Amino acid sequence: MTILTRRDFVVASGAAGLALAAAAGGAAPRANAAVAGAYPQRNISFIIPYGPGGGFDNFARVVSPAIERHLPNPVNVIPRNVAGGGGGRGITQLFRARPDGYTIGILNIPGAFFLQERQGGRGFRVAEFTWLGTVSRGENYALAVGADSPLHSIADVQALSRQRPVKFTCTGPEGTAYSAAIISSELLGIDVQLITGYRSSSDYIVAAIRGDGDAVLATLSTLKPFMESGTVRILASFESESSVPGIPDATALGQPELSQIVVERMVAAPPGVPDDIKNILVHALEQAVRDPEVIAWAEDAGIDWHPDPPGSVDGIIRDQAAFFEKWKSRISQS
Predict the structure, then answer these.
(1) Which one, of 305, 268, 302, lies nearest residue 137 by Cα?
(2) d(CA 143, CA 234)
(3) How far apart are CA 333 and CA 206, in angstroms?
(4) How many CB atoms lie within 10 A of CB 75?
């Protein structure tokens, strides 16, 4: 497998939160009534560690107003793109922010695990974040090509691979799309060449459309608008059961493990946020992802919107850490 950069290629209130935790059967942390009653007093910064226009940017900008509606005090939740280092700049900034509840961020899991590994833990440590919840349930990937591509099936991609490496556009090694390309190509027997350096999923999809690469891997919610506009064709869904009519899924491809390649859009705060404030943010996020306006947006966008149940965040991090451990040696060799 060959890897080229783009440059190379081109030249949740506090009381309600406590009640929710108690209803889930867990012992709720004791709240400081004075702190909980005062928070928040000013706007909250919502870090998006990627450029505008990608899936993480879209999700964060949709859910931010809903989080505002479910906070105990009227403040703004302001999305802020902090791109760079394939997400590392924004994630590191979040990790080092004051643990006062006024900085949160949306993270790519398991991508952040791979980035942490490559940085040697110098910028951040995933396990130490104050995890607040997920924006949506883990989303599957799909393999697509530009509308004018001569490739019409996975068999065509495999046939091309026997002649030369198949070029996939993606973000850098820290992105889940990067690891998804490596894992899926190994499972499908495709010799892949990664064209990296794009700032967001929309950027690298557009790059594949204009011919920077032969194919692209991206989440279904990000690919579907391009499919509906007629600029890309989806060749395969990595879902267990395809939600795209007429498109083979992981089961039909004979590689059910492909369905385990998912991206989790998870929201975190810096390490050490007090339980009082954490409970408020957890509650606001849990209500936001079930907000009627967010659900309506998902329906309009054709997104299968199924929020994770409250209290599932620790289990998701644990499962994704296990996924990372299984594949990290293979991806580290790339």
Answers:
(1) 305
(2) 6
(3) 28
(4) 16
3-state helix/strand/coil string of 215-247: EEEEEHHHHHHHHHCCCEEEEEECCCCCCCCCC
Q: Looking at this protein, which amino acid is placed at residue 158?
A: Q
DSSP H/E element including 146? strand 130-146
Q: pLDDT tens, position by position, for the chain (334 residues)?
A: 544 444 443 433 343 333 333 333 333 333 444 455 699 999 999 999 988 887 889 999 999 999 999 999 999 999 999 988 778 899 999 999 999 999 999 998 888 888 888 777 788 999 999 999 999 778 899 999 999 999 999 999 999 999 999 999 987 776 678 888 888 999 999 999 999 888 778 889 999 999 999 999 998 888 989 999 999 999 999 999 998 899 999 999 999 989 988 888 899 999 999 999 999 999 999 999 999 999 999 888 777 788 888 888 889 888 888 877 887 777 766 6
Tokens of residue 83, six digits: 């791109």
What residue ranges define each of the domains in the chain, with the CATH number in brackets? 12-138+264-332 (3.40.190.150), 139-260 (3.40.190.10)
In which residue are the tokens 């590191």 written?
A: 92
**Would you state the structure tokens that stand for residue 109, as one six-digit string?**
């899991």
Q: Which residue has the tokens 């990664």?
A: 194
Distance CA 74, CA 76 (A): 7
| Residues contacting 61, CB < 8 A, separation 6+ | 79
Q: Which backbone phi and psi does 292 adopt, to 5 degrees?
A: -55, -35
| Residue 185 phi, psi dihedral angles, 5° rounding | -65, -35
As given in the structure block, the two tokens for residue 12 are 């949740």
Tell me the C-alpha distance between 288 and 298, whole Å.
Answer: 13
Look at the block and give the residue holding tokens 């560690």.
49
pTM of the model: 0.72
Dihedral of alpha carbons 124, 281, 86, 116, sign: positive
